[in-house]
Amino acid sequence: MPTLISPLDAALTYVWCPQCASTGNPRSPLVRDGSGMISCSFGHRPTADQLAASDMVKFGEVFKEQPSPTDIKWPIFVNPQVKAKLESRFPQNLMITIGTLLAALADGSVLILMGDEVKKLKDKGIKNGKDMLATLEMVDTVSKERQMLMDKIEQYERIFKQAGVGG
């Protein structure tokens, strides 16, 4: 099962205080108090315009990946360059990405294409699974239309043959 991410805290706004940021403290979180007001620990209460222009807390600062209670640690060998690329591409959600991929591999719901196959698909404008399905559906439609036209041609050939037209 993929890695779990903890739920959001309803008291936090996940926005940094713009007034604190303007005075050199860019990481002062805004929180909701019991009365519905929003303020930072220094008592700043931003206006709606200031709030709209505020920096949001980054995903990785809010969600720290945690393994689910049933997960186990599994050391595997991986090429260091592959590891570095994955860590760069998924800096905040590497565990959940790999966990999801492994779960999909285990249940057989992953179709793997590599090298020339991918290049040929991309050259034809197919970039993802949605494009592949759309292409296959289009092929099915064209094939059915072709068969209907072939049936019509045969029907007309029979009519012409009965009328003594053609050879």
Notes on the structure:
The chain has 167 residues and is mainly alpha-helical. The chain folds into 2 domains: 1-110, no CATH class; 117-162. It has 7 helices and 3 strands. A 3-stranded antiparallel sheet has the order 1-2-3. The longest helix is centred in the C-terminal third of the chain and has 34 residues, at 129-162.
What's the helical proportion of residues? 40-55%
Q: Which stretches are low in confidence, meaning pLDDT under 50 for 5 or more residues running?
A: none
Characterize the main sheet: 3 strands, antiparallel
| Overall shape | elongated
Give the count of helical stretches.
7
Number of domain modules: 2
How large a portion of the residues is in β-strands, by DSSP E?
Answer: 5-15%
Give the H and E element order. EHEEHHHHHH
Number of E-state strands: 3
